[in-house]
Amino acid sequence: MKSTVLYLLQLSIIILPFSAAASSPAPLQFSPGTSQEAALLLKNNGSTVINNNRQAPAGSFWVYALPVVPGAKCSLTVNTASLPGAAMPLITPLDATKLPLPCSTTASGSQETITWTVPDYWHFGSPERVMFSAHSATASVSSFILTVQDMQTQGVSQAQLNWMQQHSHVHATVLASHPSLPDLQSLPPGIQLLPRSGAVLLPPAAAPAAVPLKTLGWSVLQQQVVSPAAQPAPANVDGVVLVQQGYPASAGRSQAFQQAWQTKYGQPWQQSSVSAQMREQTGRLMAALTLQRTVDALLNLQKNSPNVQRILQMSDPLTAMRTGSILPFWHIASSPLVQQIIAGPSASLSQLNAAYRGGLQQEPFSQLMLAYTAAAGALQGLPAKLVLKVPAAANQFMWQNAVTAALLAPHSDDYLLNSPPPGSGLHTVWRNIMAALPKIPAGSPAARNLAIHTAVLLSDTAQWRSAGSVPPDANALYALTLPLLKRGVPVQLASLERMVDPAVLNGYNTLLLSFDNQRPLALPTLQALADWMRNGGSLLVFGGPGETKGWWNKQGASTPLAALLQQAGISFSPADPVQRMLPDTAVYQTTLQAPVNGALRNLTSSLTAFNKQGGVCLRFSSSAPQSGQQAVLHELILRINGNIAAAFVPGSRIENRFVIYNQQSVLGPEGRFVTGNGSWVYQFNHLPLNASIALQVNADGPLLIQAAPALQKSIYDLHAASSLANLSQRFPAIHTGIAYRVYPSPQNSLPQGAQTLFRLNNGAAAVWELNVGRGMFIYTGISPAWFASGARSGSLLRALARLATQHAGGVWHEPGYMLASRGPLIAIHTFGEPANVSERTADLFSPTLQVAQNRVIPPHTSALFLRAGPPDAPPHLILTNGSLLATLQTSRHTAFLVQSQPNAPCLALLQTGGKTLTGIRAVNRYGIQVPLQTTPEGSALLVQFNGDTDGIAVRAGWK
Length: 959
Description:
The structure is a single chain. Helices cover about 20% and strands about 35% of the residues. By secondary structure, it is an alpha+beta fold. It has a 9-stranded mixed sheet, sandwiched between helices. Strands 1-13-15-17-19-22-23 form a 7-stranded mixed sheet.
């Protein structure tokens, strides 16, 4: 019996951009009964393929899903079969609501050409449904040719598009078969040959490296696979992976792109930093160019090598946004030309800081988890198979986080684990996991025990708006997810654009959305959300109502939020954000002052005279604004009668309680600093009268500290106004702080039936809810980033999400950890508290597969286990980290044949079932005995030996 193994060979070669001018993409040609047609056939009602012709009797029809882009001019040429009585079918392109699009038809003999234009509101990458109907007679078609003239890039010359080569490389990876493994037909009777699972794209490291691989050089690959005039790929090529990188936002400033931009929009190019609209137009064009280049390459590959699997490897949407790249992820992935997607973050993502609890923190697991869920959420329900890529991290901690996060992500049971870096000591662990992954039952409902029904919506426009020199802002996403993840609440990032698909949208009961740093692409997205709410879903919107200029103005709405509520039949006009309180500098008196290049080291000043109404304000500025020197505050301590009442360093969550004004002060690694005329103000309330109030500071530079009696009550205080979900008992009052914008809703502006949940001191509603049909809408007019600023704000977010989830009929649970059971594998990550795994398991992160029962997982730990079964189970092989070729298991013997690299350490874990080992022996293919070592692991036995390309046979006897 022969066995075939797939290998990934990385070819670091640039794929040339479009084969022809950008305005003349390669036509898509396909014939009935071919694999190309099968990939495009969406629905079939009565048609069949006879003699390479698709035929449909009268009253039958079939539908294709064809790859198009917004504004494209499409031309579909169809040839009828020369059959007696056969007629041309009625061909109808459909819009997003399945209504006919305007089209024109020209006929010439047995050929007919249908021309139509894709609407501008079309979602990038969404397939165009084209229906073929047989009316009064049998319809028969022999061939199809689709040409898509992309209006997004029409007129942009090939020379202008050369900027893409300068900023991004697209690599190709070839999946090639190697010669068959040794013939195993002569094995003893009773040995079961184990089929290789399709759950892992890469084979274990034990695959025979000594067998030469049939590879393709790049010149052959380009000539025979990708280019327009290509020949079919050689038979040993099973698939081609296009490694698609997004373009850095800085690429949008090149001269060639400026010319392309001017051609597209008909206006002189400007720095994209001048406005959000300019950033979006720049990013949108870069996304369109990226999409067209990818589709062209896929079309050529599909045309030239229809039997070769078409695979794309891309960064996930979160990674693209964090790294300032323009990559229309789901737009590309939703093309019917794509058969498989390999997606995942780079190892560097886990080392980027996230704003959480008032400071910047590294959140490796959370960021990786969100990255995987962003990929899974964008591709959910699409035909392309999703493979999650685990990067090779620099250390064991990061790598274990990445492996666990991938296994906890929904909607995928397929993984690509990059080999750990040399010297990391993780290769044995990597091989253990690679051997265990095929045990996951592919597509089985039991493989997805971590159901995620809550999502934070992320639009591709968040990438576009970061184009140019403006860095991407992920704080809002982290703030709406981390307070939930940290308590073990399953939440994921989901594509806002995908919400137009009911099959995707109806999988959630609670959605969180912010318009602060993104905008919806088109009206159908908001229509879908409104309908979903009416049918029982809960939608929470955070932050401001969105921009005032956009496509929604044509719908009679002032903002995206107004357009959303308009679709739900609700009239609402939110007010402007709360303005900063400008302090009257005349009332301040100097308490401490340092000269230029001076310092304030543990200096103390009395504030007792300023505590006239139970509060004091402190203003910090530069005593030498013209000097250019930085004035930096490192630490502040406030004492009452000698006892510490408040102590904090700038940037901490405690500091935010007291900041009421900020003008151009900046947080740095050493503290909060100002130059020039910048300043900031702290306010300390609830100070006892007639008490000694003292200030102690540590500072550098020309810092000037002034004091004054406390101002009026802070407008940034929230007061609970509802008993829903015990909000008034749990959060009677909570402070937001000047660092975060508040968008109040005057009581007279609230929609009819709305209930205020939290109000400001001036009476305006900061948080309110409204029943929409059977669903719920909650508007929280506070900057999303605030909800990650402290424990109280995070608790409030969970309280609102819990209220929304329970209203939608969901179950709320905060276990403090995340756990997924995928077949015999258990992946778990703990946060602030430990967790228990009571089953008997083997530790896949242990080089020796340590077996234990009733494990305690420490806080902030990722773990991966393989169920080992009860200790009294009969003897059997639990796991081997080589390529398992065959097994023979009886009550008295356990035997197996395993293959690995020559002399590479190979191990196997055997269940003893309480029986005594009478003997164990390992031999190679030639019958020569191989040394082995055994180590008891409780009621299991660890066997270690050196591997061999031809295989090692191990036989153990039991009594």
